Amino acid sequence: MNEDEAQELRKKQIEEFRRMQAEELQKRELMKQILDDHAYGRLSNIRIANKSFYDKLVMLLLSLYRSGQITGRITEKQLLALLNKIQEQRREPEISFKRK
Questions:
Q1: Angle 91-96-100 (CA atoms, 0-180°, nearest 5)?
Q2: pTM (2 decimals)?
Q3: SS3 of 74, please?
């Protein structure tokens, strides 16, 4: 790989990183509009603790918002109810013991 190719690769990586940052910023701004302060704080804690779960939750909230199912701001209590529904859907692995 010569210097021009390396520089082009760096430019692409920087552009991709900036695009991802812009998307994340848009998601956060929309979440601030959809959620009240306490619910947004809880969502931020989820983002720190479990990024994949946060991403699923944000995608769900965005789809509900875009489909018009969310009217007004979501309270922390409503967010907790939504979290419980999502966790109920997650199937816990079953552990079985075989004895000889």
A1: 170
A2: 0.71
A3: strand
